[in-house]
TrEMBL record:
Name assigned to this protein: Aminopeptidase N
GO CC terms, sorted: cytoplasm; extracellular space; membrane
Ranges of residues in domain Peptidase M1 membrane alanine aminopeptidase: 266-467
Cofactor annotation: Zn(2+)
Top-level class of the enzyme under EC nomenclature: hydrolase
Taxonomy, superkingdom: Bacteria
Gene Ontology molecular functions: alanyl aminopeptidase activity; metalloaminopeptidase activity; peptide binding; zinc ion binding
Pfam families noted in UniProt: Peptidase_M1, Peptidase_M1_N
Length: 560
């Protein structure tokens, strides 16, 4: 999921009404959030573990009402249950229309099962004892008009479209699920739609059958996914091949009117996949469909079927950064998924930084530095406005509150600084190790720290404490002077921020004639003085010349 502006926090209604420039050097990107009035976070359901969803959804051009059938196979993790809860939006009426889902039947092995709908849950009450460890399969039949989640409307050309738009916990508006990233499952989609629509969804297409004016399309994925990226889309598309990477087919699914600019944007996808495969691991899904979409908030990294903002695919501006960001999510976010919302940076920070690493590879180190400098400005602007908010924020009451620059830009900066701390080889090895350990499952920040420590052989407690669990950043006052007598530069560095002292490596550049020598100072105290031997007089000192530190500083010569 890509943001358009990450330096501020927006309430979801405001996000949905504006489009802002994401000032990171690379292209226009899309913004997404949870709508207001959604009832806050959807909790995990640790008493059950969903193994597989099989969704059948019937669409109509006569109305926005859908008919659904969901077969849910789950495993019980406790003996204390008397009922099973799944998240599903209750029917409700406002002044305009009726929305929500009405459940008409629940069955288990062909037998009717008692159920009730309450507080946006379908509560299933089977007969007999529910035993820990056993698997149960229930089929839920329902219908209604989605209030959210499945966005039904018209695209920029006035044509009718249907797109899943689930982040963070909006799948429950049209399918019964455990709508929390900790419960991952495989998924199959059967979509029955008017025959003029092409249907794309997660996984491999198993078949497509036309019956008169109706078309039934089936997809299935063998990969376990969080519900935030389980989707289908239906529209009138033109589908083109982008080639094959290994045995992975890559396609573009775009509106016919936008085929030219969209294809120019998406041609880069195979090269991006090759870069990530070469540095992380093989691409984790059976296909990569790049889909122009019409959703409420913009693009989303849906597993194997990425939905891009319709405007981003049609504006004629390069979208390389956007495409790289969403493809990076196929490894981090979709395959390795945050265990809970406070660890969102393991998805968004990783995708943001991997986007930049691809652009560094494709466009050079200077582009990377400029991009990270811009990201630093925005991340620090947010920190100044929210001085007590850490990267891993456990105080949230709604996942949408986490949709700030912290998981995106500060998250990317934490990875950037870790790269400087470990070196490129150990950094990439850390990403590979973390991915291999946690693929198909969930991860926390502690899991990532453990991978980094195991690879590097270093204790990284201080690094992760100050950058992920604590708020703030270093603000440095640096005074320097050159000593002819000692043939050295003396630098006094004082940390003047209110937050506790940071322990950081600080790269400095020493101007000696027409060259610049580099030195790294290990900053560990509130105030300390360093002496750096030099071969000739120093005329100037620059701080962080290669953009490795998230912080602010003022540097001045003692002789001035």
């Amino acid at each position: 999921m890509h943001r358009m502006d990450a330096s501020l926090r927006f309430s979801p209604p405001f996000v949905s009404l504006i489009t802002l420039l994401f000032v990171l050097s690379y292209g226009t990107v899309a913004c997404q959030a949870q709508p207001a009035g959604n009832g806050g976070p959807t909790p995990a359901h640790p008493e059950i573990d969903v193994q597989h969803y099989d969704f059948r959804v019937t669409l109509s051009d006569r109305s926005d009402e859908i008919t659904g059938e969901a077969t849910v196979r789950l495993r019980l993790t406790t003996d204390t249950l008397t009922a099973i809860r799944l998240d599903l939006d209750d029917p409700q009426t406002d002044n305009v229309k009726e929305t929500g889902m009405t459940v008409t039947a629940v069955e288990e092995e062909g037998r009717s099962v008692s159920f009730r709908q309450v507080n946006d849950h379908v509560v299933i009450e089977p007969e007999g004892q529910l035993k820990e460890g056993e698997e149960r399969t229930f089929t839920i039949r329902y219908s209604g008009t989605p209030a959210d989640g499945l966005i039904i409307g018209s695209n920029r050309h006035g044509d009718r479209t249907f797109f899943g738009d689930n982040w963070p916990n909006r799948a429950r508006h049209y399918v019964p699920v455990v709508d929390h990233p900790s419960d991952k499952a495989t998924v199959a989609w059967t979509v029955d739609a008017p025959s003029r629509y092409d249907v794309v969804a997660n996984g491999e297409r198993l078949g497509q059958t036309d019956h008169g004016d109706r078309r039934v399309t089936r997809y299935r994925t063998e990969a376990t996914l969080p519900t935030k990226v389980m989707v289908f889309g239906a529209a009138e598309f033109v589908v083109d091949s982008l080639g094959v990477q290994g045995d992975i087919p890559m396609q573009s699914w775009v509106y016919p009117e936008d085929r030219g600019p969209a294809m120019r944007d998406l041609q880069v996808a195979p090269r991006i996949v090759r870069f990530f495969e070469g540095n992380i691991a093989p691409y984790p899904f059976a296909k990569l469909a790049n889909v122009q979409s019409t959703t409420r908030y913009g693009g989303m990294e849906n597993a194997s079927a990425i939905f891009y903002s319709e405007s981003a695919m049609a504006d004629g501006e390069p979208s390389t950064g956007l495409v790289a960001h969403e493809i990076a999510h196929q490894w981090f976010g979709n395959t390795v998924t945050e265990a809970d919302w406070p660890h969102l940076w393991l998805s968004e920070g990783f995708a943001t930084y991997l986007e930049k690493l691809y652009l560094e590879y494709a466009e050079g180190a200077q582009e990377m530095r400029e991009s990270m400098a811009s990201a630093r400005n925005q991340a620090l602007a947010f920190q100044r406005q929210n001085p007590d908010e850490p990267l891993v924020d456990t105080t949230y009451t709604d996942p949408a509150q986490l949709l700030t620059s912290n998981p995106y830009l500060k998250g990317a900066w934490v990875l950037h600084m870790l790269r400087f701390e470990l070196g490129d080889k150990a950094f990439w090895s850390t990403l590979q190790t973390f991915y291999e350990r946690k693929k198909s499952g969930n991860a926390t920040t502690a899991d990532f720290q453990s991978a980094a420590e195991d690879v590097s052989g270093k204790s990284l407690d201080i690094f992760f404490e100050q950058w992920t669990r604590r708020a703030g950043y270093p603000i440095l006052d640096i005074e320097w002077h050159y000593s002819d007598q000692n043939e050295a530069v003396e630098l006094t560095v004082e940390q003047v921020q209110r937050s506790p002292v940071f322990d950081v490596p600080l790269e400095i550049g020493l101007a000696i004639g027409d060259t610049e020598d580099l030195a790294t100072l290990d900053i560990t105290k509130r105030k300390e003085t360093f002496t750096v031997d030099v071969p000739a007089p120093v005329s100037d000192v620059t701080v962080d010349p290669h953009t490795w530190l998230l912080g602010e500083w003022d540097v001045h010569s003692a002789s001035k």
